[in-house]
Every structure is written in C-alpha cells, then in structure tokens.
Amino acid sequence: MALLFALLSAVALAAGVAFPTSVVLTTADGQTLHANLGVPAKGVNGVVFVHMAGRNKEDWHGVADKLYRQGLLVLTVDLRGHGANVTGTAPTLTGADWSAMTEDVATAVTELRKRGAQKVALVGAEVGANLALLSAANDITITSVALLSPGLDYKGLATGEAAKAYGARPVFYAASRDDTYGLRSATALETVATGPHMLQVFEKAGKGTTMFNREPTLESLLLGFLNTSWTAVAAPIASAPTEIKVKAEDLTTTGTRLGERTPDAPK
C-alpha cells in the first residue's frame, strides 16, 4: 500500500496541479476569491479568465481545460460579489466595487506567476473584457489580451484610454452583430490597436461566453491566438490614432458610470 501511494504521488507530482483544482486567493484589499487552477508540470505560459457580470468562473471551464491539456497554466476566478464568493443573497455592487475588481485580476495574475508562469495572457468576456484590458494597461508584463464583447463603458469601466495605453501588444476582439453595443465597442477599440490584432465578427452568436455555445469556431480562433501571441512581435504602425472616434456617450450601454445609481439600487 505504501508503495502504491508513493507511485500515485509521483504520478501526481509529474502531472503538476490538475485542472480544476480549487484554490482561495486573497486580494491586497482583503477580499477572498475562489478560483480554479491548473498547472501542468512543464508549463511556462499562463492564462487568467475573467467572467461576465452576474456569471462565474465555471463559464470558462471548457476552454480552460483545453488550454491546460495543451500545457498552459490556467486560472479561472470568481470576481468579488460573484460565484462561490457569495453566501446567501448576492450583494448590490457599486461603481467602486466594479472598479476594485481590477485588483481581483491582478491577484489572479500574481498567483499564476507564483505557480511558475513566465508569461501571462488575460481573457475576458463583457465586463470581464473591460477588466482584462484595464488590468493589462496597468501591467506591462501582461503578454496579450483576448476580449469577447468588450464595451467602451461597462459598469463605469471605460476602456478608451486603456486601449491606447495597452500599446503594441497582441489583442484579439470577438463580437457578434446581434450584440450591437459589443460590436460597435470592439470595432471602435480596434481602431487604436497599434500591434498585432484581430477582430472576429459573428452573425448571431450573442454576447461574451455565450458565443462559445453558438459559434463553435470561436474556441479554435481563441486558442490559435493565444498559442501564437507568446512569440508575437509587436508591429508598430507609422501613425497611431490619437483617439477613439466613437464615444461611449454615443452608444447605448447596459452599465452605469462610476458614482451613478443603478435603477434597482436603493436610494
């Protein structure tokens, strides 16, 4: 029995940390976050997944598992006020709460680096896409970002300046024509991309991670982008746009700006 246990332990060690392994993270401002982690034995590149508003880390399970099996470190995290972080009634999140979620992303990135990731990419959907772009703009060590149905302004998280600050690193945008706001936002954000970038437009795929169910090619496009972005060379353009031509105030948005009260929030 002891020999069998030793053999099993050796196999587990050689395989790294399987996905999904539940972990608990603590942010710099004291928030407890539940996450799913996968660390292959020889992985050096990592991906953090950031979910949509009102959703959770499980939305990313399928694609995260495939990346793990390809040898990437993966971490899907429940943002504060979401998923396994909530017991009982879900809290009413303020603009300050949404803004602070960039700390959740940073904490997830730090965890992957502790686990051996030398390069980290961020993948986000809807408000998670905004958080991913804002976080990457503030962290020049992020290798690339993939943004599904981003917004120029979701929940007060504006992305125009972040898209410019992100610079010439690789970026992948995906949106669907039946998500008018997401498509117009992604198109506007792409205009300031100065490095390797791609905008994939679907016809009737919905929004965010819903697109995986309705458009099977999205997964392969995303995996292909991530697998090539580790070695992509930034391709600066001669004259970078100085501003996004479409302004957030010209678009219909489902979010609120920082400091605004949501329609169902108590006065």
Indicate the overall shape.
Answer: globular
Strand content: 15-25%
Find the CATH superfamily.
Alpha/Beta hydrolase fold, catalytic domain
How many individual helices? 8
As for the CATH topology, it is Rossmann fold
What percentage of residues falls in helices of 4 or more residues? Answer: 25-40%
Low-confidence spans = 1-10, 234-242, 246-267
| β-strand number | 10
> Strands of the biggest beta sheet: in what spatial order?
1-2-4-3-5-6-9-10
Biggest sheet descriptor? 8 strands, mixed
State mean pLDDT (0 to 100 scale): 86
Rg, rounded, reads 19 Å
User: What is the CATH class?
Assistant: Alpha Beta
Domain count, please report it. 1
- What gap, in angstroms, lies between the N and C termini? 64 Å
Structural class by secondary-structure content:
alpha/beta
Write the layout of secondary structure elements.
Elements: H1 2-14, E1 17-26, E2 32-39, E3 45-50, H2 61-69, E4 73-77, H3 95-114, E5 119-125, H4 127-138, E6 142-148, E7 153-154, E8 157-158, H5 160-165, E9 171-176, H6 180-190, E10 197-202, H7 210-214, H8 217-229
Can you walk me through this structure?
The protein has helices at 2-14, 61-69, 95-114, 127-138, 160-165, 180-190, 210-214, 217-229; strands spanning 17-26, 32-39, 45-50, 73-77, 119-125, 142-148, 153-154, 157-158, 171-176, 197-202. It has a single domain (17-85, 97-231), classed as Rossmann fold (3-Layer(aba) Sandwich), CATH 3.40.50.1820. Helix 3 (95-114) packs across helix 4 (127-138). The protein is built from 8 helices and 10 strands. By secondary structure, it is α/β, with parallel strands linked by helices. An 8-stranded mixed beta sheet has the order 1-2-4-3-5-6-9-10, sandwiched between helices. Strands 7-8 form a two-stranded antiparallel sheet.
